[in-house]
């Protein structure tokens, strides 16, 4: 019995190590995923063959910080989608813990706000764990290099959640503008400010 328990513990330990390693850092290559959009069609990064990269935003309906940034996420998509960096928004919150973040509520939100970007449902929370996302919003800027998607920036959208007009550091926009100029972003990581993702209970 003790031997079985020890083996089980070792397997669990290896699983946890693997899970930690799966969390992306700047410079890591992103694996593609396929998630259901609010139009009931699955979306993957590979579908965007002409994209130069992506602004992947982990967000939700209910977090006050996510709501404060909704218009800024929309603006990022309008500003950079035509330049090759579309927004891909993902909600990974457990709907049991936050009914306001259910797929049906996501559909209502996207329609009411007129989102121009995909709003994907990460029901299994696999993609959030794959990326290492912890907050809403939590942004990953990825750029295509030799056919691979490489993480270039991780963190917050800017440095003022309360008032966009007073944000004097626009981390995501600055990172993408640098990439469009063929330069590495000056700032590659900041702390994501927002509500913690609501994880499913084991």
How do the helices and strands line up, and which of them pair or pack?
Blueprint: H1 2-21, E1 34-37, E2 42-44, E3 53-59, H2 64-80, E4 87-91, H3 103-113, E5 119-121, H4 126-131, E6 135-136, E7 138-145, E8 148-155, H5 171-180, E9 195-196
Parallel strand pairs: 3-4, 4-5
Antiparallel strand pairs: 1-2, 1-5, 3-7, 6-9, 7-8
Observed structural traits:
32% helix; 202 residues; seven-stranded mixed beta sheet; Glutaredoxin; 5 helices; alpha+beta
Outline the structure in words:
The chain has helices spanning 2-21, 64-80, 103-113, 126-131, 171-180; strands at residues 34-37, 42-44, 53-59, 87-91, 119-121, 135-136, 138-145, 148-155, 195-196. By secondary structure, it is α+β, with helices and mostly antiparallel strands. The chain has one domain (25-196): 3-Layer(aba) Sandwich (Glutaredoxin), CATH 3.40.30. The strands form two sheets. The chain has a seven-stranded mixed sheet, covered by helices on one side. Helix 2 (64-80) links the parallel strand 3 (53-59) and strand 4. It is globular and about 45 Å long.
Please give the count of helices: 5
Q: What is the CATH class?
A: Alpha Beta
Overall pLDDT, averaged? Answer: 91
- Which structural class is indicated by helix and strand composition? alpha+beta
Q: Please tell me how large the radius of gyration is.
A: 17 Å
The strand line-up of the biggest sheet is 2-1-5-4-3-7-8
Percent of residues in helices: 25-40%
How many individual domains?
Answer: 1
> What's the CATH architecture?
3-Layer(aba) Sandwich
Report the uncertain regions. 1-21
CATH fold description: Glutaredoxin
């Amino acid at each position: 019995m003790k031997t079985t328990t020890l083996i089980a513990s070792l397997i669990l330990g290896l699983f946890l190590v693997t899970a930690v390693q799966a969390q992306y850092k700047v410079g890591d290559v992103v694996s593609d995923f396929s998630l259901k959009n609010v139009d009931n069609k699955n979306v993957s990064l590979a579908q965007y063959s002409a994209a130069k990269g992506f602004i992947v935003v982990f967000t939700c309906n209910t977090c006050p910080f996510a709501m404060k940034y909704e218009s800024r996420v929309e603006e990022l998509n309008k500003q950079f989608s035509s330049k090759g960096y579309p927004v891909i928004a993902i909600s990974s919150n457990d709907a049991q813990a936050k009914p306001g973040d259910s797929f049906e509520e996501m559909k209502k939100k996207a329609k009411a706000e007129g989102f121009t970007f995909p709003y994907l449902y990460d029901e299994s929370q696999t993609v959030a764990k794959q990326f290492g996302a912890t907050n809403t919003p939590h942004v990953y800027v990825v750029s295509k290099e030799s056919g691979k998607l490489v993480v270039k920036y991780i963190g917050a959208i800017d440095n003022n959640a309360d008032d966009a007009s007073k944000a004097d550091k626009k981390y995501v926009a600055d990172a993408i503008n640098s990439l469009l100029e063929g330069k590495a972003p000056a700032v590659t990581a900041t702390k994501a400010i927002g509500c913690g993702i609501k994880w499913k209970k084991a």
